From TrEMBL:
Its main location: secreted. Residues 37-371 form the GH26 domain. It comes from Spirosoma pollinicola. The active site is at 194 (proton donor), 302 (nucleophile). GO terms for cellular component: extracellular region. This is Mannan endo-1,4-beta-mannosidase. The lineage of its organism: Bacteria, Pseudomonadati, Bacteroidota, Cytophagia, Cytophagales.
Amino acid sequence: MRLRLLALSFILLVLSSSDPLLAKTYRNKPVDSKATRETEALYHNLHKLAKKHILFGHQHATEYGHGWAGDANRSDVKSVSGSHPAVIGVDFSGLSGRPPEAIEKAKESLRKQITETYDRDGVTTVAWHFPNPVSSNGFNWVDSVSAPAVSYLIPGGSYNGRYKEILHTIADVAHSAKGKDGTLAPMIFRPYHEFDGGWFWWGKPHCKQEEFVSLWRFTVSYLRDSLQVHNFIYAFSPDCLFKTEASYLERYPGDEWVDMLGVDNYADFGRNGRYNVPAGIKKLKIVSDYAQKAGKLAAFTETGLESIPDTTWWTNTLLKSLKAEKVRLSYVLVWRNDRQSPTHFYAPYPGQASVPDFLRFYQDPYTWFETDLPSLYRRRWFF
C-alpha cells in the first residue's frame, strides 16, 4: 500500500511539473531567489494587475515639475488629477563622477524620494544615466571624446575595480532606503537603457554584443550575490529600433538575468510630429508576447510627446495603443517636466492644453494612478 502511494505521488509530481500553467507560475518569480518579501510581492502583483490594468508613471514627478522644485508632496500630475502617478521615476546618475559631498547629497535625495513613494504604496523605477567612468565626460557619446567604456568595466577590464566601487555606492542606497515600517523599499532597476542606439557610451556601436551581455550579467551578479542587494527588479529596455522578436533579443542577457522586458519609444508616437502608431503597437506586442512566453514582466518603460501639442494624445494615441492588442504591460512611463524650460515637459500641468484629455485618460478604468493602488507590497491574488 505504501509503495502504491509513493508511486501515485511520483506520477502526480511528474504530471504537475509538466503542466504549463504550473511551470509558468514557477517562472513568474524574480531572478533573485533571495528577493525580499516585499520585492517578491511587488513582482507577483505586477503580473496580476497587468491582465486588467496599467500603472501610469512619470519621471522625476515628485522632485520637480513645470516651474517648481522641491515642494513637499507635489507633482504636476497630482496638481491636475488629484493623484500622484502610480510609478515615480528616479535616476542613479548622481552616484558617480562627482565630488564625494555631491554623491552623498544625491544618496540622501534618492533615499527620500524612494522611501516616500514606498510609504505611499507607490512604485519606484530607477534609470541610470551613468557618466562615462573611463573618459569622464557624461553619459552621452561624444565622438573623439568618449571612451568605449564597456570593455574596460567587465571582468578582466582595467576599470572593473572602479566599477565595483560605483556599484557599492548603488548598493548603499538600496540597503538604506527603508520605509517607515523598517522594510527595504523595492525598486525596478533599469540600467543601460536604449542600448541599441548610439547616443549613450554603452550603445550598440560602442561595444560588442558579448561585452554588453557580460556587463549586464556582471552588474546583476555583483549587486545580488556579492553586495547582497535583494530589493531590485531588473528591467531590460532597448529603444524602438527593432522590428522582430529576434532583433529585440539581440543583446538579451538571458531569462535568468532579467525580470522585466521593456521598450523606450518616442519616435513612433509623435516625436517631431511624426506618427507611426501601428509600428509602435507592433513593438509593444513583441515585448508583451515574449514576456508572457518567458514568464517575465513587461512595461512601456519610456514614452511621451514633448510639449504635448496634440491635445488628444492621451486617449487617441497612447490609450488606444495600450489597448489595441490586449498587451500585458505593468506600467507606462512618460518623461520628465523640466523645472525651467517652457517646452520640455511630457505630463500636463495646470492650464496646459491637454489637461481635459489627460483627465479622460486618468478616469479610464484601465489606467491606475497612485490613489487607485492597493498595497502592492503584500501578495494579492485578485485585482
